[in-house]
Specification:
Helix content is 31%, strand content 21%. It is built from eight helices and nine strands. The chain has helices at 6-13, 23-32, 81-89, 98-105, 121-124, 128-131, 149-158, 182-198, and strands spanning 41-48, 60-64, 75-78, 94-96, 113-116, 160-164, 170-177, 209-216, 222-224. Strand 3 (75-78), helix 3 (81-89) and strand 4 form a beta-alpha-beta unit. The longest helix has 17 residues, at 182-198. It is globular.
């Protein structure tokens, strides 16, 4: 078993394990217990009362975090030449088509999001085995396959993230950085949770939001009371 460091012990001592914290309290506490030298990511893990193996209970969507993610998101726009200038002006980090398809074929995936157009999707199909496992495959449902490339690029740069429930029924999403103010973390967390509530499948029975935990990189997790959403 991994040894608990002095800093981790101090962090654990600040959390009352028998308490469900409000989003506001958790947003302040997560900053207190983050003891790393870099600007840690703050994450939310939401356990849903769904069976993700059933298509009618799959929860997937996008949310624009009001205060952004705090992360410099690297965007690749795989577009035809007539759309290149539009993608560049919107802030895409990499813009092109065949050259980048070749690079990906060779194993290059040094980006966070890929945005493309419907006409290019056929070329991306064979690269699914490389892009799929890394969560980089563009999808019309998340707005990353679109003719409005500029809008898609600027939204991703501004803090739009996509999420989906994993096979254990949990949605994991980064909602900011430890350097954010508690208000910003609270605002982003609330936006994500409200979006999840709107996406509740009609086939889901019983308690929908079973548990919510907030944590930062290497910090213990804080149990959040879903009723405070």
């Amino acid at each position: 078993m991994a040894r608990v460091t002095k800093k981790q012990k101090e962090a654990l001592a600040k959390i009352d394990r028998n308490k469900l914290y409000s989003i506001s309290e958790a947003s302040s506490l997560v900053k207190e217990i983050t003891n790393v030298k870099f600007d840690a990511s703050v994450d939310l893990a939401v356990r849903l009362g769904v069976d993700p193996r059933k298509a009618n209970q799959m929860v997937r969507g996008v949310v624009t975090l009001p205060h952004g993610t705090g992360k410099d998101v690297k965007v690749l726009a795989l577009v035809t030449p007539d759309k290149e200038a539009e993608a560049q002006e919107a802030g895409a980090d990499f813009v092109g088509l065949d050259d980048y398809l070749q690079k990906i074929k060779g194993g290059w995936t040094d980006v966070d999001v890929i945005i493309t157009m419907p006409s290019v999707m056929g070329k991306l199909g064979p690269l699914g085995r490389i892009l799929g496992p890394r969560g980089l495959m563009p999808n019309p449902k998340t707005g990353t396959v679109t003719m409005d490339v500029a809008k898609a690029v600027s939204e991703v740069k501004a803090g739009k993230i996509d999420f989906k429930v994993d096979k254990t029924g949990i949605v994991h999403a980064a909602i900011g950085k430890a350097s954010f103010s508690p208000d910003k973390l609270e605002g982003n967390a609330a936006e994500l949770l409200q979006t999840l509530i709107k996406l509740k499948p009609t086939a889901a029975k019983g308690t929908y939001i079973k548990s919510v935990y907030m944590s930062s990189t290497m910090s213990p997790s804080i149990a959040v009371d879903p009723k405070t959403v």
